[in-house]
Amino acid sequence: xxxxxxxxxxxxxxxxxxxxxxxxxxxxDEFVIxxxxxxxxxxxxxxxxxxxxxxxxxxxxxxxxxxxxxxxxISIFPDDAQEAFALMKNADTAMYHAKAAGRNNFQFFAxxxxxxxxxxxxxxxxxxxxxxxxxxxxxxxxxxxxxxxxVCGLEALVRWxxxxxxxxxxxxxxxxxxxxxLIVPVGExxxxxxxxxxxxxxxxxxxxxxxxxxxxxxxxxEKDFVASLRRILADTGQPARLLELEITEGTLMHDIEETHxxxxxxxxxxxxxxxxxxxxxxxxxxxxxxxxxxKLKIDQSFIRDLTTDRDDAAIVSAIVGLAANLGLDxxxxxxxxxxxLDALVALGCECFQGKLFAPPLPPLAGDExxxxxxxxxxGA
Length: 380
Ligand code: C2E
Ligand code: MG
Ligand code: MG
Hints:
Layout: H1 2-16, E1 22-27, E2 30-34, H2 41-55, E3 59-61, E4 64-66, E5 71-74, H3 84-100, E6 105-108, H4 111-132, E7 136-145, E8 150-162, E9 166-168, H5 170-180, H6 183-203, E10 211-214, H7 217-221, H8 225-236, E11 243-247, H9 249-252, H10 256-268, E12 272-278, H11 286-290, E13 295-298, H12 300-304, H13 310-326, E14 329-332, H14 338-346, E15 351-352, H15 366-370
Parallel strand pairs: 5-6, 8-10, 10-11, 11-12, 12-13, 13-14
Antiparallel strand pairs: 1-2, 3-4, 7-8, 7-15, 8-9
The structure holds ligand C2E and magnesium ion (2 copies).
């Protein structure tokens, strides 16, 4: 029965990894798996998870109902050891920690990686659940056209209301969602919820303004993205011109041809494109000419010290000039003070987003969203 179980486990292990990976049995009930080019520790976590999952169902062997409870130790080349023997020894050490931790789990050899992986792992599982449990919500922040003294758009910003941890900010879970691919369902939910909210506001007689939705690189590259975008627009009955997608420079730098084709398809639908956090991506400026982009959003890091740091002022001024010459709209993010507003107007930027006008607010605060604070006088 033991031999049969070992054979069964070996087959399950082989099916849980890629064809290029090595699965071997050293003896006893110990297996060694070598993942070549494993990627990031998070990718390794996914393989470990997959193995635990593959072994979790009960199996009937010789009239017994059996279940393997693997303890997985992980060591990573070259960080944990430089050569094979030491790597295996360290994986072995890690495996004993896994056994001690109660089996059916994995441990990294490097301690800090464990903590990171555990945190990541818990958050990932909770986030998976959060989507179904309706724990995600959106806040909205108005975009201000200073010339018109009017709201010219709304940015939808996702939040996660966890029953135990309270409100979790996107900076904490978007990277995990991106890493695990959960960003695809999260992003779809955000798009649908943002468009539905805008429709609701329209039905309530609020002004017709476009809604801006952040798009992560992974979501953008997803095969079905354009189809799902079409479907969500159709389902919510919102015209494409009332949707602006915010992408980052990183999204554009991926696979130029593929990216170009996809952007063209999106723009042909009538959706607008903005580059978010502009100026932080170290990217080639030539793509601004090549890609069908409509707007640049100057990253808030350049606005923060705008009034005291001449370099920031020079950068903002250059971006404003670039946008003007290329016929792109321009908006400054993170405007918090009257002084920043005046400095931006003096530099020729007249669209803003920031706490000076309104912070991101829940949909119930419709009045504050559509009638934000507007400081008096033009200043500069
Ligand atoms: P972002 O798209 O650049 O959004 C602007 C961020 O600046 C928001 O942070 C907003 O709360 C913050 N902010 C607004 N006004 C001010 C201000 O006056 N001063 C300062 N210092 N900050 C201000 P938030 O909501 O924490 O979002 C952080 C980032 O998370 C976003 O940056 C965006 O990259 C990402 N994110 C948010 N929602 C989504 C989403 O639905 N999908 C994806 N893929 N990413 C999202
Ligand atoms: Mg944004
Ligand atoms: Mg930004």
